[in-house]
Amino acid sequence: MKRFFDEVRPTILLPALAMLTAGTVLVTPRTALSQVVQLVEVDVRVLGQGFRASELMGQNVYNDKNENIGKVDDIITDNKRVLFMVLQVGGFLGIGGRLIAVTSESLAVEQDGSKLKIKLLGGSREALEKSKEFKYPDKAQEKSQQPKQ
Asked: Domain of 89: which CATH number?
């Protein structure tokens, strides 16, 4: 005569064994995929001749006549070089000014002792105040206007 446990054992053991095996498969840590990053050797002497963005931000901008004509508000780059500097012109103590973008090639950055001096070559306050105002693009609006693929 068979006992009850002998008949039920395969019905209980097989699902239990399947659950335990599945559990070990699910919690087994995966090995990380390797990623190759190519490092470039940097000559610190050359690097030291450059200017940090944090040093340029907020600096006054002068024209050829050494008149203060604005202040660096932002720096716009692509992934290789500085494209534009956004200047704040007009206003008083940062109030009522407007933003304009100038190409980085139109600016000269000089070391004046321990300070930086930024010059807008051939620029005047009047010309900057008449130039078209720069407005940052609304990224959310740009994305909503892109065609869906």
From this structure: 2.30.30.240
Q: How confident is the model at residue 1 (pLDDT cuts 50, 70, 90)?
A: very low
Q: Is the dihedral of CA 17, 18, 20, 24 positive or negative?
A: positive
Specify the length of the chain in residues: 149
Separation CA 103–CA 84 (nearest Å): 4
How many separate domains does the chain show? 1
**Per the domain annotation, does 24 fall within a domain?**
no
User: Can you tell me the distance from the alpha carbon of 34 to that of 31, in angstroms, rounded to the nearest whole number?
Assistant: 9
* Structural domain span for residue 80: 51-135
Task: Determine, yes or no, domain membership for 35.
Answer: no
Q: Residues 116-134: pLDDT tens digits?
A: 899 998 888 888 878 899 8
pLDDT digit string, tens, across residues 4-48: 444 445 555 455 545 555 554 455 555 666 677 788 787 877 777
Q: Is residue 121 part of a domain?
A: yes
SS3 6: helix
Q: Is 90 in contact with 129 (CB distance < 8 Å)?
A: yes
Residue 75 lies in a domain: yes
